[in-house]
Amino acid sequence: MIINAQTSVYCILGKPVRHSLSPVMHNAAFDSIGMNAVYVAFEPSSIKNAFDAIKALGIKGASITIPFKVDVLPLCDSVDDLAVRIGSVNTLVNRDGKIEGYNTDGYGLLKSLETHAIDYHNKKILIIGNGGSARAIAYTLAQHNAQITICGRNINNIIQLANDLRKHFGAIDTMLLEQLTSDITEQYHIIINTTPVGMKPDISKTPIDAALLHPHHVIVDIIYTPLQTLFVQKAREKGCTVITGDYMLLYQACMQFEIWTGKAAPINVMHQALKQALQ
């Protein structure tokens, strides 16, 4: 890749982002299709100032991550309907000085399931967590008539998310983690961990006890550092089908790439770059 005066700039905005693997994937993708572009990471002290910089400097697009996914919504000139309903934005496009907002997190999860030939339509799905990722995943799955249960430690937080979802969908169930039993979890087809439990540096924990897992379960852990979380390991030992966090990360990035460029994402190139970075 040769950077010159014509190079287009894309970036990720978050805090922290020094650990981000998005630059690895997107720069490999730009290089693969011969696009004169570069993707870099910024940790802005102010997201409002970062928006001004995107417009002033002509930055073409951006990924948005923690803690700015909700804060950017009112700053965008326009926001995709899906992102409005989810309530968060993870993708920005600068079109002639007008900033458009999108959310590709839910797509990343759906594509992860589809890649593993997992049917999620009308299935009972237990989502552990109630943050931004849980919100995007729950909304996107509910669009496909999945039967969603939001599960977490804080009753107020899970009820708030469930109530937000009920504005657009029918029954959304809630359950505290401490209420889970083996008989209850046996009713679910897919269990998705959206919490940071098991992420580095505290890799010795699992979001739920392995005794609650059954061989028919599809287990999705969106954590990718480490890729083989203790939850993933325990699920494999129980005979579950397992989907690791690199897939959601990959596919949400692929959709970002296509929104930015209008070109098909070089999925294999991006996945290979991601896998090498995770080794």
Short description:
The protein has 279 residues and is α/β, with parallel strands linked by helices.
Pick out its properties.
Rossmann fold; 12 strands; 2 domains; 279 residues; 6-stranded mixed sheet; alpha/beta; 6-stranded parallel sheet
Distance from N terminus to C terminus (CA atoms, Å) equals 23 Å
Number of helices: 10
Spatially, the strands of the biggest sheet line up as 2-1-3-5-6-4
Identify the overall geometry.
globular
The helical percent reads 25-40%
CATH topology of the largest domain: Rossmann fold
What is the CATH architecture assignment of the largest domain? 3-Layer(aba) Sandwich
Number of strands: 12
User: Average pLDDT across residues?
Assistant: 96
SSE order, as H and E?
Answer: EHEHEEHEEHEHEHEHEEHEHH
Sketch the major β-sheet. 6 strands, mixed
Question: What is the total domain count?
Answer: 2
Structural class by secondary-structure content? alpha/beta
Task: Tell me the CATH superfamily of the largest domain.
Answer: NAD(P)-binding Rossmann-like Domain
Our estimate of the beta-strand percent is 15-25%
CATH class type of the largest domain: Alpha Beta
**Radius of gyration over all CA atoms, rounded:** 19 Å
